[in-house]
Amino acid sequence: MTEFWLISAPGEKTCQQTWDKMMVATTHSNNLSTNHKFNIPDLKVGTLDVLVGLSDEMAKLDSFVEGVVKKVAQYMADVLEDSRDKVQENLLANGVDLVTYVTRFQWDMAKYPIKQSLKNISEIISKQVAQIDNDLKARASAYNNLKGNLQNLERKNAGSLLTRSLADIVKKEDFVLDSEYLITMLVVVPKTGYADWQKCYETLSEMVVPRSTNLLFEDHDSGLFSVTLFRKAIDDFRHKARENKFTVRDFQYNEQEMNADKEEMTRLSTDKKKQFVLWVLFGTDWLHWSVLHRYGLPVNFQAMLLQPNKKNIKKLREVLSELYKHLDSSASIIDATMDIPGLNLSQQEYYPYVYYKIDCNLLDFK
């Protein structure tokens, strides 16, 4: 499972005893979960009033922070396209996968100085997440424009011979070039009309060079033929060809323009791939925010990260409730929809211990 429970409980005589008690109850005898100590530094707590006020502010921003993280994950899924199943392994925090980062979490002292108040640290994180959100919007817009331009070029190089680009089909040797009098034209002929074309192309107008036609390319329905004639006969030839259900393509061989199109296609494809390597540090702000949001009095507590065994989630809940029921006897009867000042219970069940779910699977793939 990529789901973790961040649990915090008051220390016994020592925090180590709290940890040992948890291990005995959930791991040593019944394999309910895999547990990790979760290192949280001594932050400047302040008074209970300050904590309650800060909790109200942070509750408003909590969904925003999580929403930005999920938008980043969705952005990477869009960029990966056909490899969407590899999104999870490419979502990185500080250069490692999210599960590793969560289980080995260390507070970033340089980025979030613990000498600052909790309010100041929350503002630092909030500003950084807002900046990530703005950057994401800009990058997503640039990516969509890039993707749209590339799709337009790809459409030009696909489809029917009547409409598609011919630059990747024809070669220089297919044309009479640099002639004052002669020109090579390209004609789309239905496959059912090949025989008719061969019989009549020389007589569609005057000044068609005999035996000058060649089949250059075929798709499912048609063939692309070249034919050489005198320039003064172009309009008459085009008109007679249309009468015989042959379509003359408006095409002039220009090697410089054709190379420019190919280079543009290569550039767009390369730029599109570059989008894949972006956004590998976003998870750090999210987890620091989660820690900050769950920090409070008393300071003598042990934070523990539990990775539940999927088959034993219900049993694990029962064991934790039994282990910590003495902390709050009302926990079993509190309704999560109740509005209790200082407690943000929306969308979450209430337990006698501090609990927060961290799900590293930021996208659900069917």
Task: Spell out the key features of this protein.
single chain; about 375 residues; alpha+beta; four-stranded antiparallel beta sheet; about 45% helix; proton-transporting ATPase activity, rotational mechanism; V-type proton ATPase subunit C; acetylation; transport
Structural overview:
Helices cover 43% and strands 16% of the residues. The chain has 366 residues and is of the alpha+beta class. The strands form three sheets. It has a four-stranded antiparallel beta sheet, with helices on one face. A four-stranded antiparallel beta sheet has the order 6-7-5-8, with helices on one face. A two-stranded antiparallel ribbon has the order 3-4. Strand 3 and strand 4 form a beta hairpin. The radius of gyration is 34 Å and the shape is elongated. One of its GO terms (cellular component) is lysosomal membrane. InterPro entries: ATPase_V1-cplx_csu (IPR004907), Vac_ATP_synth_c_sf (IPR036132). Keywords: Acetylation, Hydrogen ion transport, Ion transport, Transport.
Kindly report the spatial arrangement of strands forming the biggest sheet.
2-9-1-10
Fraction of residues in helix: 40-55%
Q: Any idea what the shape is?
A: elongated
Radius of gyration: 34 Å
Count of DSSP E strands? 10
Question: Helix- and strand-based class?
Answer: alpha+beta
Mean pLDDT: 81
Order of helices and strands: EHEHHEEHHEHEEHEHHEHE
Percentage of residues in strands: 15-25%
User: Termini distance?
Assistant: 16 Å
The total count of helices amounts to 10
Low-confidence stretches: 278-282, 333-347
Main sheet characteristics = 4 strands, antiparallel
